[in-house]
């Protein structure tokens, strides 16, 4: 609100009629003053060039009355306040990452080393890595469901069935994975029958969802590994997903202005999505050209586009789950990353997409 709204003075040095100037010192209680809602600073009378030189000089009593009105309170129980000085504008804050980047990079490098060694030395060891990630992910998901929603999805049949799904997919292909998935769902239904019927429907529904969301989708990584160049296919899958996430983060952090899905994940921007698409398409062209037998660069462009879309949707999907649960991370096992599920969110839905496109482009062998 500007000064004019409080009633600007009529002229420089104006203090009313001599009768008004001779008023006794103390609070002012005229009608106009009673309508004020907060004190207004009064500028003392300062002679200026505009004052009439022939004006009658004030008497001592007049000057004393003016001084008393200036120094006294404007209203009862209220002292005059000096005008507030406007603080200087603060310099723009530099953007900061939301997580500990040093810890995140260190954990990422460590995980990459474990995956690389197990992937290219003994494939069975890499299957064990997938199983461990699946079991830990199921534990995080079921724990958060019970803590935040009171949903008791049975962990034991989920963990055993999830491990069986991954192994069956690697050993028997898609048919083995589907059979293991069906048996896991049946085990969840039966296991929950040992407890009271209250909440049975929501518990088994959450259990079947968890079985599909974590181990079944992870089984497609094992299916990628069954091909002759399976190690390179898995590496392509991992590289494209990581590059997509990195491109989204880098471009969104630097240039992001327009929110992608503010109600689900306020940090994601449309500019970040464009960065994910661009990075993933370039990486896909290089991977298909140099890593995959019989692959072509244009196939890599399509593959990268599909990975950017599926990884983004997977990230948004888990953000939706976490927002419903009222949590930021699924766990705290990985410093700088959160939990295992916070790293699997974009990988899980991307695995079947990459597996299907590679089968279409170069076959399953």
TrEMBL record:
EC number: 2.7.7.41
Biased composition (Basic and acidic residues): 48-67
Organism superkingdom: Bacteria
Pathway: Phospholipid metabolism; CDP-diacylglycerol biosynthesis; CDP-diacylglycerol from sn-glycerol 3-phosphate: step 3/3; Lipid metabolism
Residue stretches spanning the membrane: 101-119, 125-141, 153-171, 177-194, 206-226, 232-251, 272-291, 347-364
Localization: Cell membrane
InterPro entries to which the protein is assigned, alphabetical: PC_trans (IPR000374)
Region (Disordered): 1-99
Transmembrane helix is among the record's keywords: yes
Presence of the UniProt keyword Kinase in the record: no
Catalysed reaction equations from the record: a 1,2-diacyl-sn-glycero-3-phosphate + CTP + H(+) = a CDP-1,2-diacyl-sn-glycerol + diphosphate
Membrane-topology descriptor: Multi-pass membrane protein
One cellular component (GO) term of this entry: plasma membrane
Keywords of the record: Cell membrane, Lipid biosynthesis, Lipid metabolism, Membrane, Nucleotidyltransferase, Phospholipid biosynthesis, Phospholipid metabolism, Transferase, Transmembrane, Transmembrane helix
UniProt record similarity statement: Belongs to the CDS family.
Protein name from the UniProt record: Phosphatidate cytidylyltransferase
